[in-house]
Predict the structure.
Amino acid sequence: MSMLDHAPRSAAAGKGELLSNVGSAALRGLASMLKAWRGRKLVMNMRDFDDAQLADIGLTRSDVETALDLPLSADPSHHLVRARQDPLRGLKRF
């Protein structure tokens, strides 16, 4: 048995497989950026909601603005989901 038989698959990867892995990572990064952009666009539309509509879905105007202040690479819709699930929401903290 040679050393390559015991080596991890990534260590024995050929040039083609390495390029394939780099290409896959680039596509995943692009897909993530597109998803964040789409989420940002949806959250920006929520600026048009009045306070009663936001309250109906369990959010405040501050939640929407805070989500839009996140870096462009982050999906602000994930922030809004976490804001709604916060069990201590609305409680005064000392």
In short: The chain has a mean pLDDT of 81. Residues 3-85 form one domain. Helices lie at 3-6, 15-45, 51-56, 61-68, 76-85.
